[in-house]
Amino acid sequence: MSTPRPIVVLLTDFGTRDHYVASMKGVILGLCPDATLVDVSHEIPPQDVLAGALTLEACYRDFPAGAIYLVVVDPGVGSSRRRLAAEGGGYRFVAPDNGVLAGVFADAPPERLVELSGTRYARPTISHTFEGRDLFAPAAGWLARGLDLAALGRPIEDYQRLQIPAPAVKSGELSGEVLLVDRFGNLVTNIGRAALVEWAASREMAVRAGGQPIGPVVSTYADVERGALCALVGSTERLEISVNGGSAADRLQLGRGAEVVVLLADMPRATGPEASSG
Description:
It is a single chain. The termini are far apart. With 278 residues, the protein is an alpha+beta fold. Helix content is 21%, strand content 30%. The longest helix has 15 residues, at 131-145. Helix 1 (20-31) runs parallel beside helix 4 (131-145). It has two domains: 7-155, S-adenosyl-l-methionine hydroxide adenosyltransferase, N-terminal (Rossmann fold, 3-Layer(aba) Sandwich); 168-264, Bacterial fluorinating enzyme like (Elongation Factor Tu (Ef-tu), domain 3, Beta Barrel), CATH 2.40.30.90. A seven-stranded mixed β-sheet has the order 2-1-3-5-4-6-7, sandwiched between helices.
């Protein structure tokens, strides 16, 4: 049986208009011509580390074990922030140490973690504004070629974490917030399926977003009429506010940070000084 071709998966905020993504791919293929290159997205909002972390968390387990992830969402490019290579959950990752791997590490803590150091496995000249090409892409290319992770730098144990707010129960309601707005205008929240099940058990739930009533939690968009608002647990296993055939972000004029509240369908809205604000 032939050896599978190495897979390198790219996620950046570079967009596709300029040369940046192509340059990184060229470096990888120069080191490992047999690599299969896969794009997750290059449309992460510029410098939005949280969006990058959530996007990676949502899809990294969909690839075969052994895949290498090159993740460059890097507002600190050229600064003293560290550069990482990591291994965990059967995958390897190359990224800046700014929290963009936080979602993955929360799900699969790194088994090996090194700080990229030295120039042996980097390009001869390193641009302080394009480390994706000159440092991160070469590291991914060498890993695809078969280099052991330990050769890329000194082992470390700590890494930058993101302060992602957790949902909380207050005044008898499960309170969370919008973390991300996807391409369809769905409002993806920090309330996961497990939190909903633990809090509500099998009881019916109703949802408010930004103080506006959404309705019950349903199973799929088609459970409501076209153009109607709904709340459901999406493919990321997080509660989403959606519109069947439309954009919840546009309809509600809400975005990241907007409050989302889940209450039992037969429970009156809390009142008083401890009530959740709308």
